[in-house]
Design brief:
269 residues, 8 helices, elongated, 6 strands, Glutaredoxin, alpha/beta
């Protein structure tokens, strides 16, 4: 038999749902219950009216700005310039620029009579006739009043030592070679002399090496015209190893032969 419920008695009709709600929320902490903990206010990232679901935190977006290469390049350039200045300063203090004497002394095999025989180098009087020299070919000493023309002259026969030494005093480089030197090497030597002021070239019998180069107080003997020291010798000593700066090579003796020749030259040259 069914029991009828009087109309308007709403407490009995709504009781079962309320009991289910109580049971569903039992044992949960207030913060885990729908609606959040306490006072009905949303906590943390809960969205109002969003059923209590937490809102995910928003991560700030970093805006990447490219590197400014202008200042970096400027600082780098300044650093390089500063390093170069400091490096040059250290070099200038500790090493310093090379003089022509330093360059000459740096040529392997060169004989420096300015150091080994300074008296010979300081002897340079004008004398007539034949003169005996301690070196062959000679490198310094007394000499004839006239010099051998040394404007890039290539002589095909021997010239007088006394005239040649006077040319060395003016700052010339004298290239000599044995007469049996192959023609291609003679031509190679001639190409280093022709047209170059303060140089001259001639054969010289009896050399102990195929080629010998002389400047005032210096000598270098080599075996082949391709030896790079020949260029080093000419570059370092031509016009530098002079005892009479400012005196030229033109107007000298152009004749060949071992007999000294005298031309009318101004005194003191």
């Amino acid at each position: 038999m069914s029991i009828s419920t009087p109309a308007g008695d709403s407490s009995r009709q709504t009781a079962p749902p309320a009991a289910k709600k109580a049971t569903a929320g039992a044992g949960r902490p207030p913060s885990a219950r729908p609606g959040g903990g306490g006072g009905g206010r949303p906590t943390g990232g809960a969205r109002p009216g969003g059923g209590g679901r937490p809102r995910k935190p928003v991560t700030p977006v970093k805006v990447s700005q490219g590197r400014s290469w202008g200042p970096i390049a400027l600082f780098a350039a300044v650093g390089v310039i500063a390093a170069a200045i400091i490096g040059y300063g250290v070099y200038a203090v500790t090493v310093g620029p090379k003089t022509w004497q330093d360059k000459a002394d740096g040529i392997p095999g060169i004989a420096n009579f300015r150091k080994s025989d300074p008296k010979l180098v300081d002897t340079r009087s004008h004398k007539s006739g034949s003169i005996q020299y301690p070196q062959s070919p000679p490198v310094a000493g007394d000499h004839n009043v006239s010099w051998q023309n040394c404007m890039g002259d290539v002589y095909d026969a021997q010239i007088a030592n006394e005239n040649a030494v006077h040319s060395l005093e003016h700052g010339a480089v004298w290239v000599t070679y044995r007469p049996d030197l192959p023609k291609d090497q003679v031509d190679a030597l001639a190409s280093k002399v022709q047209g170059q002021e303060f140089t001259m070239m001639s054969p010289f019998p009896g050399l102990d090496k195929p080629i010998s180069l002389q400047a005032w107080g210096y000598q270098l003997k080599v075996d082949n015209a391709s030896d790079k020291r020949i260029d080093d010798f000419i570059r370092a000593l031509r016009t530098n190893a002079t005892m009479e700066p400012g005196v030229g090579c033109s107007g000298g003796v152009t004749a060949t032969g071992t007999t000294p020749r005298e031309l009318q030259q101004p005194q003191g040259q």
